[in-house]
Amino acid sequence: MSLSIRNQIVGTVTSxxxxxxxATVKVRLDGGQDVTAAITxxxxxxxxxxxxxxxxxxxxxxxVSLATGAVEGLSIRNQIxxxxxxxxxxxxxxxxxxxxxxxxxxxxxxxDAVADLKLxxxxxxxxxxxxxxxxxxx
Length: 138
Hints:
This protein has 138 residues and is mainly beta. The protein has helices at residues 41-47, 111-117, and strands spanning 7-18, 22-29, 34-40, 54-59, 65-67, 78-89, 93-100, 103-110, 124-129, 135-137.
């Protein structure tokens, strides 16, 4: 199956914490970063996710926010440091490619945000992704 989701990074499940309907699944990317996904318990079972299994994190580029440094006092669980490799701007929006250990992420943000944050190739950034916006595949 082909997907339009640009962000697809492989990792290893390190824990599954089930709730009544939802579960949190922690995935360690090849670069060593931990990513938390909040998915349904039914999906955990259907995918056969368990500690040690391989999973691919999937996140739409529109769900990736950028910061110029680590952010404290925030409920967003996933803060992945990286370096910008490319910025392509259009009339209103921009596509920002970020090299992270173990893969690459793309963020779709406004052109104004690129200018305000002074984002350019070589800049260090932190990708912020809510755990509810991460899907998993096997």
